[in-house]
Amino acid sequence: MKKIFIVRHAKSDWDNNLIDFERPLNERGHHDAPQMAERIKSLGEKPDLIISSPAMRAKTTAKYFAEVFGYAPECIIYHHEIYDVGQRFTLDMLTKLSPKVGSVMVFGHNPDHSHLATYLSNENIGNMPTCSVVGVEMQTELWIDIKNAESRLICYEYPKKGE
Questions:
Q1: Alpha-carbon gap, residue 120 to 122, rounded angstroms
Q2: Residue ranges in the chain whose pLDDT is less than 70
Q3: Are strands 77-78 and 2-8 parallel, antiparallel or unpaired?
Q4: Cβ atoms 102, 2 nearer than 8 A
Q5: Which of 79, 126, 128, 161 is the most buried (most CB within 10 A)?
């Protein structure tokens, strides 16, 4: 089995004159990211690999998760195409992962991440809120087969869930 955790970046700051790629997290984003990482960790999950868009808001969110999971920030793999191309690139990238990787956490953006989560889980995920995590378990031993593998939603967590 393979597990994929699709993470939308935490809440970002629009009150600046930066280009979209450089937008940082706002105060709520800095609060939510480590809390969501702890929530996923409390479910007994720890990804083998962390991959992120290099956009500042996704990169910072990924770093918070890496810290909670005990990974050095240098362990995060960045792919600019997650930001530029989105869902199509991310899905193709996942199919090329080594069979040795059992689980992966991918940080990126909407609407691409919501579409990817819906596609892989076969559930109506809708619009993923900021800093939400959708976990999908795929019934396959090879990443190349995830597009046709039977899947099961294992979690859909977001900061305001249960409030």
A1: 6
A2: 162-163
A3: unpaired
A4: yes
A5: 128
107-135 pLDDT tens trace: 999 999 999 999 999 999 999 999 999 99
Return phi, psi of residue 70, to 5°: 80, 25
For 2-157, the fitting CATH number among 3.40.50.2300, 3.40.1180.10, 2.40.37.10, 3.40.50.1240 is 3.40.50.1240
The bridge status of strand 49-52 relative to strand 77-78 is parallel
What the block records as the tokens of 97 is 């992962």
The ranges assigned to domains in the chain are 2-157
Q: Which residues contact 147 (CB under 8 A, 6 or more apart)?
A: 91, 95
